Amino acid sequence: MNRQITRLAVMGLALMIALVVATTYWQTWAAAGLADRQDNAIERVAQFTIRRGEITNRGRVLARNKPRKVGGRTLYFRRYPQGKLTAHIVGYSTAERSRAGLERSLNDYLTASNSNLSTVLDRTLDRLRGGTVTGNDLRLTMNLRAQQAAYDALAGRCGAVVALEVKTGKLLVAASSPSYNPNLVEGKFDLINRIQAPCRPVAALYNRATKGLYAPGSTFKLVTLSAALESGKFTPESTFYDPGYCEVYGKRVNNYDTTSPFGRVNLVQGLQYSINSVFCNIGKALGAKAIVAQSKKFGFYELPPLETPADERAPSGLYKGGHLFDPKQNFEVDPGRYAFGQERNLVTPIQMAMVAAGLANDGVVMEPYVVDRIVAPNGRIVRLTRPHELRRAVSSDTAAKVRDMMIRVVQGGTGTAAQVSGLTVGGKTGTAETGIRGSNTVWFVCFAGPEGGEPEVAVAVVVEQQNSTGGETAAPIAQDVLQALLPSGANS
Amino acid sequence: MSERTRELFNLVAVGLLTAIGFASVYIARSSEVSSESLTYGAFFLALYLAAHLVARMTVPYADPYLLPMTALLTAVGVTIIYRLDPDDAGRQSLWVVIGVGVFALTLFWLRRDYRVLESYKYLFGIASIVLLLLPALPGIGKTVNGARLWVDLGPVQFQPGELAKIFLIVFLAGYLREKREVLAQGRLKDLGPLLVIWGAAMLVLVQTRDLGSALLYFGIFLAMLYVATGRVLYVAGGLVLFFGGAAVVYNAVTHVQERVTIWLHPWTTEPVFCAQTGGEALRQDCGSFQLVKSLYSIANGGFGGTGLGRGTFTTTSGDPIIPYLNTDFVYSALAQELGLIGACGLLLVYMLFVTRGMRISLLAQDGFSKLLAAGLTFGFALQTFIIVGGVLRVIPLTGITLPFVSYGGSSVVANFVLLALLLLVSNRANAVGR
Q: Which residue of A260, A416, A490, B374 pairs with B361 in a disulfide if CB–CB is 3.0 to 4.6 A?
């Protein structure tokens, strides 16, 4: 019988070894996949035993911890002292609805589970000592005064304001209206669902500043103009005849105001008064592909760089059937309409701010960023963001010409409402019809700096479903934000 | 060094380990847990010293490792149960005391010659079938978590299946010892009783609606049949019959069907019919949520675990995430807090237990002893595999206990009887020639 017993013993041990193998599988190979699952209640709660890093902005706390004893353990719940002000960028971290914003994308740093060597060491020591693991702090680049000014100026209307520092790409303002109170996400989420706003859909959780896709209207003329000057076929002095409309594929496309055609104008006036027929003719001369190529240099057709989660941002460009559409042939896109901001062209506010910032920065677009530095609990800097060039969009010469033309728009064109005393402001208005009367998407995109000095900031403003124009509605909002961003200029 | 002195040293080491375990739970959860927990180590040491003294008197030559390993497993069990619920740990400790008492009684009763059991083999056979069918009786049977495995007699609730397992092994050891030559010839008419046992296993499966118990009893039977006859064909035929029968039952009993579906597809991306609520839900939120949460718990432990007392088993509002955590899912609690290292350490103890048990069977002199030791040991191994394998999604999950570790009186007491029998066989085998 001993032979059978030996075999049975091997069988019994094989069963145990199968258990060792299975345990190893779940605790090593499969562990990361399981940890990422949305319904992983254990992982979600376990994250709360970590004292998350704080998120601050120039000394003001945007996200801090509120410890509470649950079942004999201290759990760290999040509080957001600034409430609605920075909700979309900071996001939230809750047990019920997981995470959003920087709380999601930089979770590894905030919970000290990133693979940075010294963080790993700190965390391991914390664990061995039986202490609480403390995450790294985030320091943001924003200007909360201007952020507040943006929300005040939007005054509850749906839309977004983005402001960038042109030399560095620092995100100064990213307002998305309507906003929500992140402190309500845990437990009182129904209150967020009930937020009212004068637009459909309300979508308060949605970051319109980086994910909202809008028809750019005439603000897209900045891209067309850049392409025109870069091509060498046009100069600011090039002349056009405006009959009040433009003919594309045998069909008339009217100017915003068809009753008074401008007649003979040059390109400077074309931008100043936002004459569609001028840009329509440029588009026909250049072809759609040249304009697409120029837009790509500004960052279109890729996710706008930022530290927030990728799915909270959206790429700008031509869309077809809900997807980005990169035309292979010129005839696939109507170049005339595309050139002055129609066609199936959709852009995000941050992308339009990048266009203005690139032009203001002598043609070089800087990558936007909002996290200035990540700091370990002991004060050591874990990650310091250095300004990074996205790419050169236009030559320094083209940038200077476009800037001059934009300044003319604010001095005596469609954008006069954005004038700020003591500042040189250059901008472009946009009014995109949505097909519903009295429901326009209105824009103002601009840069500004102290009078006679170099431009310092770029701002993009969009307001949804307005019965007005960009110059009437969006430009005054930009004015308020510029005053908050550059107060010294306004006072002098 | 004599066997018993070796055992004594091992027990002292286990006592120390127990004290360290409770101390770490105390340190991690001092706000919840009283300093009395620190006396558990001393209490366990005293208890097992008493067991050791009984062993010294009754089975002086028996294997010196089985008792310390049992002590370690019960200590691990009580420690993790204490961490999950101090009140349950108090009750579990009481059961361990009773278990040691039954262990001592068994040793004293059978110290002259345990082989008298062989003469009562049919009594054990009938008793095991009666015990197995008890939960099916209306009035006293009780369904827990979809399976009928419990008997509820007012103040006393127990799982008769645990004891039935040991009775069945005693019966099979006696029966197969007697019939092994005849069976080995493989004449058709001798296979009758085997088909009866197969029928009984199927009956158990239908009655208890528990695939795990049926697999356990039938697995033990096949293993002992193989040891007795050496015919692989019987095992193969038995397995075919079992799985054939199980397939029929699968189609007839929805509970078994559900268990298998959960095992194959615990996660769905689309809502499916949810039997518990009658509505539609993702399966991980419905039928398979225990299994899935338990896998999350294991995965969360990672390589080193969170440390005793530092694991996550409740939501942020303090509600339990995994039900039946200290019985069916005690392994996933251990795997989270002790990590891969601790879980594999625990499995290693089970492996050593199996090795020692099989060694006893090899050293035993007579057929009954060999069959008894092999059956008990393989039953122990198979039970461990069925519950841990279920928790790890190796096989469909069924609700049986992890020997010596899970919370539950019947299981602890029955396994102490199993230990006593193994020590008795070992003592006799080693005593020869001394």
A: B374
